[in-house]
Specification:
Blueprint (H helix, E strand, L loop, with lengths): L8 E8 L5 H15 L5 E8 L14 E4 L4 H4 L2 H8 L9 H8 L1 H10 L7 E4 L8 H4 L7 E6 L9 E4 L1 H15 L2 E5 L3 E9 L2 E2 L3 E4 L7 H5 L5 E3 L6 H18 L4 E9 L4 E7 L9 H8 L4 H16 L1
Parallel strand pairs: 1-2, 1-3
Antiparallel strand pairs: 4-7, 5-6, 5-7, 8-9, 8-10, 8-12, 10-11, 12-13
Length: 314
């Protein structure tokens, strides 16, 4: 990989914005900016972007915008659409694929159409759809469910619920706080994540946490969460996981990089939970860990993403 950009390049690392994941975005953005500053050929600007003050997007001296947003505005397609309208070069997925991936139901439908295994689910977008959930959720014979917002990230608002008698109140609470939500069958199994950069599948990471599941605290605050490589020895299963990750990436229309979260069920089926089009770049984050396993440190990973983005311009 050629890490020398001839003639220099001005890169604006955009982070922050609004929403519950603002602080995580700021942390990720600072990590990206710090990593890119190791290359003398790059002029790197850190910018805490606010939707009502978009002036930096009109700076003609900037060659590429490195988007490091988490949450609906920056990850759900709105920011990408603004950049597209202005004909700016930016990292990551386009607005269409960002919207599909961020809407967990739209993502499920795209994955199902591509033959990817996903958990059975009930979609709730109106108050009427909250009625008689116990009759709609009989797909979970063990009576264990995941209740979560349809449009949110970093596991914000996600709850594991046991018993038909509790799923109704949990769904109502989620709907009242976040709006559109979903009740999904809880898949018992091993939690893994698979990064993809430039259409290349990175090593599988298995996640083990002492918490009920890999929630917000486990992701960003808990130093006891384990991220393990080489825990799956079955070559056929590994091939199936890699194929599922790449098929999911392409089904949604992703580009440059993403992270695919899965549960490997007890009968060896990789169920895709969600696709993160702008995964974290913090010290706890999984895409940098997986890249490091292949020999790419954080600086090289960020430069690889820039090179992949520049190739589209060419």
């Amino acid at each position: 990989m050629d890490l020398n950009i001839s003639g220099g390049l001005k890169v604006a690392v955009l982070m922050g914005a609004v929403g519950s994941e603002r602080q995580v975005s700021l942390t990720s953005g600072k990590c990206v900016a710090q990593a890119l500053r190791k290359f003398p050929s790059l002029e790197v600007i850190e910018h805490d972007f606010m939707p009502d003050k978009p002036w930096i997007l009109d700076d003609k001296s900037i060659d590429i915008f490195f988007l490091v947003f988490h949450g609906e505005f920056g990850e759900g397609g709105d920011m990408q659409e603004i950049c597209e309208r202005k004909k700016l070069l930016f990292t990551g997925c386009d607005s269409k694929s960002s919207r599909i991936a961020f809407d967990k139901m739209a993502c499920k439908k795209a994955l199902q159409s591509a033959g990817v295994a996903v958990a059975p689910v009930v979609e709730i977008r109106t108050a009427k759809e909250l009625e008689d959930l116990s009759k709609k959720t009989t797909f979970a014979s063990d009576k264990k469910f995941v209740v979560k917002p349809i449009r949110n990230g970093s596991s914000v608002g996600v709850k594991i619920i046991e018993g038909f008698e509790n799923v109704q109140s949990a769904a109502e609470e989620c709907y009242n706080e976040f709006g559109d939500c979903m009740v999904e069958k809880f898949i018992t199994g091993r939690e893994i994540t698979v990064g993809i950069v430039d259409d290349k599948v990175l090593p599988v990471i298995e996640i083990r946490t002492s918490r009920d599941f890999y929630n917000y605290d486990a992701k960003y605050n808990d130093d006891q969460t384990q991220y393990l490589f080489d825990t799956i020895q079955d070559e056929k299963l590994l091939t199936k996981i890699d194929d599922t990750a790449l098929k999911s990436f392409k089904a949604v229309g992703c580009r440059d990089f993403s992270r695919i979260d899965m549960i490997i069920s007890q009968d060896g089926i990789p169920y895709v939970i969600e696709i993160n089009t702008i995964p974290g770049f913090t010290s706890h984050s999984l895409l940098p860990k997986a890249a490091a396993k292949t020999g790419l440190d954080m600086s090289q990973l960020c430069m690889k993403i820039i090179e992949t983005t520049l190739r589209r311009k060419a």
